[in-house]
Amino acid sequence: MAVTSVIKLTELDSVRRIDAEYYQPIFLENAVTLSGCPTLDSISKRVTDFGAYSQFNFIEYAKHGVRFLRNQDIGEVLIRENEPIHITKKAYELLSLKLENGDIVIPRVGTLGKAAVITRNHLPCSANQNLAQIKLKRGLSPFWVAVFLSTKYGLHQILRYSTGNVQPWLNLKQIKHLRVFLTAEKEIETKVVKKAMKSVEVYSVSMQLYSQAENILLEELGLIDFKPKHELSYTASLSKASGAHRVDAEYFQPIYDKLVQQVATRVELKPLGSLLLDTKKGIEVGGEQYQEEGKPFIRVSNLSVDGLIERDQKYISERLYGELAKHYEPKIGELLLTKDATPGIAYVLKESIEGIISSGILRMTIDESQVKKEYLALCIDSIIGKLQVERDGAGSVITHWKPGQIKKLQVPLLPNEIQHRIASLVEQSHEARKKAKELLEEAKIRVEQMIETASLN
């Protein structure tokens, strides 16, 4: 059913926007609800970005050093710790803007609607030009503001102001115009802030548990000090090239064979295909089937080692979902594995979902008499899996991990008791992450309830 709204010409002139999306009823209602709230600019000492310096030659990336934030590192209230990148201390010292304790950072391009708080644990720290830095005035809690910006009231403003067709984009002026709900009920504000801070704390615990599991795996495999180093020159025999059906130089980097050989001296390796009971591929529904609401269509970008994430989430109709669910809806306990674009992301599904997976994701049923599911997922997500995936995808512009290659992935089979110990830590990590999400949702709901109560008075 079509949704329409009528706007006066004078209202068009005041904002200099003529695109229909800007005047969606839900955005107009949101604007009325927050009309009496202060702008982000009015409650901040500074709202700025980090310029274009990330393109300059002095930005040097390093294995360790100073944390350098990107869009994908910004979660709801918290900074994500998956695959962080760093810059050298020398590069950091040359930057004009540096993040400080209590700053809020929000993405300006791509996946919008997140706001994270910088704490002392993140420092020293800087960010690229796609993030905005918000420094609040004294007495205002960054956790309260970050929670608000993560609610539907914050998100609807961000989506309304954003421009651009391929990638949504926010400029600093638009960010400064965002309205923020503040409350005089300090007791409730304190409870919301405490929940948000607890959420960040529990998330940190989850990451520590996952890191502990990965360290045990790498230690048992003799890879705890393994440093991948790609060589500039090397040779490969014609018979080896013929056997692999590959002639691209990257495939024959010695580092790949060294990794597998080093692990094979300590533990039995089995091809992934021998550990599977069943494998099913998703389906492509076509962009013309996407809707603003409905059942989730889960693409590669929606899967992470943490689970499913709403990154540029697409939806399909109830009707189409009904037609496809029997064959393409993932089930609890299945291992989901990406094979296209960003191949090698593995996650064991913990909760039932009503959604369809795309053809870039495989659903796997694991033979648990041979290997623990969570242990297997960690192996694929760790260096032992990543380097093998990197090898298979070498020489491609857009990586496609072929089913034949996936089945040949070498999986180390540690003794059952060690597998169980590792799997238990991974499960505890996921439980902690789930708890962190629940705490944040409780905080967001409380803020939304306060806004709705205030709008009725």
Descriptors for this entry?
457 residues; alpha+beta; Adenine-n6-DNA-methyltransferase TaqI, Chain A, domain 2; 14 helices; 39% helix; 15% strand; globular
Task: Extract low-pLDDT stretches.
Answer: none
CATH topology of the largest domain: Adenine-n6-DNA-methyltransferase TaqI, Chain A, domain 2
Arithmetic mean of pLDDT = 87
CA-CA gap between termini: 32 Å
Gross morphology is: globular
What is the helical fraction, as a range of percent? 25-40%
How many domains make up the coordinates? 3
- Order of strands in the sheet with most strands: 1-8-5-6
Count the DSSP helices.
14
How many E-type strands?
19
What structural class do you assign from the helix and strand content? alpha+beta
Q: Tell me the Rg in angstroms.
A: 24 Å
- Give the CATH level 1 class of the largest domain: Alpha Beta
CATH architecture of the largest domain: Alpha-Beta Complex
Biggest sheet descriptor: 4 strands, antiparallel
Could you give me the name of the CATH homologous superfamily of the largest domain? Answer: DNA methylase specificity domains
Quote the beta fraction.
15-25%
Task: Give a description of the structure.
The model has no long low-confidence stretch (mean pLDDT 87). It contains 14 helices and 19 strands. The protein is of the alpha+beta class and 457 residues long. It folds into 3 domains: 34-182, Alpha-Beta Complex (Adenine-n6-DNA-methyltransferase TaqI, Chain A, domain 2), CATH 3.90.220.20; 184-221 and 418-457; 228-413, Alpha-Beta Complex (Adenine-n6-DNA-methyltransferase TaqI, Chain A, domain 2), CATH 3.90.220. α7 (186-220) packs antiparallel against α14 (416-456). 36% of the residues are buried. 39% of the residues lie in helices and 15% in strands. The longest helix has 41 residues, at 416-456.
